[in-house]
Amino acid sequence: MITAHSIIALDKDELPEAVKVINSSELPRLVELLSVQDDDIRYKAFLTLQHRSQLSDDVYPFWETFKSKLKSGNSYQRSIGLMLIADNARWDTENRLDGTIDDYLDLLNDEKPITVRQCIQSLVKIVAHRPDLGGKIAGKLTSFDIMSVKETMRKLVLLDILLVLAQIRKTYNTDEIESVFLRALSGETLDKKTKKQVEKLL
Fold first, then answer.
1. pLDDT tens digit string along 120-168?
2. Whole domain around residue 9: which residue ranges?
3. Are residues 17 and 71 in the same domain?
4. Is the same domain home to 82 and 48?
5. Which of 58, 86, 105 is the last residue of a domain?
6. DSSP letters along the chain, please?
7. Are residues 166 and 75 in the same domain?
């Protein structure tokens, strides 16, 4: 039987196959391992739960644990929480996102740029399964101050935002959303190649 202990011993390339046969009774242990200080163990536990979330709803019961991580003082824990919530949005039969989305969107103002990016990128998964939250998410993204991001990160963060808004505008569109695209395509943050990528989204 594949156990939490044996999962940690595997190479990360072996995880996608291993999670298919891991017993659900091992999941609580893997969730516990998300909080250990050892980077390798924590990362493998996270990847295992992430892969499992794509296959089964048996990680969904740990939603409140992931939600609590959104307010952690540790940026790694905040990132783990937001990504696992996004991965389990597809299983959210109890609409727990309704009581989570505000704390989630607060991470758009996180002190760590990488956490901000992970938050924005993960919103694509949330919008895909909860298009009814598109309006609230769009409201936050269209008012996001891209100039608050350090210059070297602005292009990447802006592109992340545009990808989410492109998903949202399939079912919900506003003048504010169109304005973000217009400014991005006419501004200097994106290069010509990236602007062509954005135009294809539209």
1. 999 999 999 999 999 999 999 999 999 888 999 999 999 999 999 999 9
2. 1-58
3. no
4. no
5. 58
6. ---HHHHHHS-GGGHHHHTTT--GGGHHHHHHHTT-S-HHHHHHHHHHHHHHHHH-STTGGGHHHHHHHTT-SSHHHHHHHHHHHHHTGGG-TT-GGGGTHHHHHHGGG-SSHHHHHHHHHHHHHHHHH-GGGHHHHHHHHHT--GGGS-HHHHHHHHHHHHHHHHHHTTT---HHHHHHHHHHHHSSSS-HHHHHHHHHH-
7. yes
